[in-house]
UniProtKB/TrEMBL annotation:
UniProt xrefs under CDD domains: NOX_Duox_like_FAD_NADP
InterPro entries in alphabetical order: Cyt_b245_heavy_chain (IPR000778), EF-hand-dom_pair (IPR011992), EF_Hand_1_Ca_BS (IPR018247), EF_hand_dom (IPR002048), FAD-bd_8 (IPR013112), FAD-bd_FR_type (IPR017927), Fe3_Rdtase_TM_dom (IPR013130), Fe_red_NAD-bd_6 (IPR013121)
Protein's recorded name: Uncharacterized protein
Any one Pfam family match given in the protein's UniProt record, by short name: Ferric_reduct
Domain called FAD-binding FR-type: residue spans: 364-485
Organism: Papaver nudicaule (Iceland poppy)
Topology within the bilayer: Multi-pass membrane protein
Keyword Oxidoreductase: yes
One term under GO cellular component: plasma membrane
RNA-binding is among the record's keywords: no
Amino acid sequence: ADSNEDGRITREEVRELIMLSASANKLAKLKEQAEEYASLIMEELDPENYGYIELWQLETLLLQRDNYMNYSRPLSTSSVNNWNHHNNNRGTGGGTGTPSETTLVPKPLHKFVRKITHKLKYMVLENWQRAWVMSVWILIMAGLFGWKFYQYRHRAAFQVMGYCFATAKGAAETLKFNMALILLPVCRNMLTWLRSTRARLFVPFDDNINFHKVIASAIAVGIVVHTGNHLICDFPRLVHSSATKFTLIAEEFKGKKPTFKFLFTGIECITGFTMLALMAIAFLLATGRFRKNLVKLPPPLNRMTGFNAFWYSHHLFAIVYILLIIHGQSTFFVHAWYQKTTWMYICIPLLLYAGERSLRTRRSRQFSVKIFRVLVLPGNVFSLTMSKPQGFKYKSGQYIFLQCPTISSFEWHPFSITSAPGDDHLSVHIRTVGDWTRELMRVFTETCSSPDNIGLAKFGQPGRIDQRGLPRLCVDGPYGAPAQDYRNYDVLLLVGLGIGATPFISILRDLLNNVRIEEDQTDSSVTDMSRSEETSLNSVNSMTTATTSSSLKKKPQKTTSAHFYWVTREPGSFEWFKGAMNEVAEMDQKGVIEMHNYLTSVYEEGDARSTLLTMVSALNHAKNGVDILSGTRVRTHFARPNWREVFTKIASKHPYATVGVFYCGMPVLAKELRKLSLEKSQTTTTRFEFHKEYF
């Protein structure tokens, strides 16, 4: 830093230091503002305007970095005193000595046994909902298989075809059940309704897609068992059976022993082979590598990968279900209509799913929206602000499906709603990660040729309506998501990775809107009480009436505070919700929300390569109230959060509270957050309940 080794550092040398630090951390925007931040440091350390600072002054400033690396900071100035009081009274952050920590005395067990015991306990606590659902499902399949196996074990055909025949029929019964059941986890409207009932306490509705995949795997196994036993075992036994044995079932084939040609050209095999081919295509294109376009095929086979191929191939199941009914009606050895049970299994789920699709179609026509504003953001992200259809009601944390007929009349894609329920518009933030989203961005940006059409309205307001030539957009939803239940918790811990922050922006705004409404109602109630005291002798009755009427307007919310952690690699990502974070900061007059931005591409706080940036950020935030990286009032931390410390301090700050931990992002972090939620629920007086968003 001191290039001429005279113990003095000039403004230019400070600027060079900032430039070097910005380069080391790949912060191009910071390099452009190096002069401004150099002036900031000189202003702090050179109040007499000597034009230089002593080297020891800069070293002292850098050594004070711990004072700037506070765990949290309030967004509003009115909550600074409360925050400082809490910050001074809490422990060191290690968790020992805090009011919510309970010292556990280990039992005199072997270390290995104790470790296994803890793992089993966490596993049960984490998976009890999944466990009982899976157990019931497996028991039902086992019961159906055993029932049908036993039934055919005592028929004449068993004497000819043996256990292969009974096994094939047992597998067929489980296939009927699973082909019916697999439709229910994708009935989104039904699941959204069920989420609002007490059933959510016992059934893991968040795992609906995972359960759908598990059922599909069971169907694949059932097909192999059913088809394999027919083709490899009982068909050959039937064709090559002796005349004596064949007489036992001769009536079924009108006295003529069947040949392989007869069996393979019958309705049973034709429908079976066709279903097998269609389902093989759909199953293959639904696998992760094909669906995510990770498999690279030469043209024109490359069109068989990606979301489009997955989506369209799944519609082959409409043909599969028709063939399944025909297949079930044409089976051998079953003649009475009430014994042909395939249609009985699938009729109700098919009707539910058909109703679901019909409702989606009707709603998409009804919920055609106008585009208010299109905003192109860094990191291949753009936001759409659109009209709110009449009668459209949703909860924060829910998501909608969007369709653009200009691109495709059949494709629907899910996006989290980033506007609050109280807003008079809808907004979504979309990252271009696939062909449909890239095309949607291209269509809107090309259509909005005028700069006036592309821009950012103030967050929470639609801005000017300009519909000149914009593509039509249809909305389907809203649909339930884990985050919609945030009101059930005293405290929220919201964690978003990258674009995964989208579901939580709506929650933060809704939380503050509700706080503001409650304050307005309280003020109104107090005003009414005061007036009633002046104008009525019966003031007690008047106050009771005023209070009662006020309480009926809106039920007080349970959630009292929220901790929001946004982790991203790209500094430009902060532009996505810059308006949202600034407006939340303006609205948060009681320090209800703690917001933390983490930039993982920068060396961690405490590293020599980022220490100067920490100082500059702290000084600028103290003077101007703005973070140098995000451009908001929310401080940006470097590297990844220490999640154990985060959980420990939340438990310390909120003893005996129930904390809802909501996460949206890559699966890697979900495992750690889930484990910490279980661990801290056991070792502190605070209860953490983990939820992961699925798309």
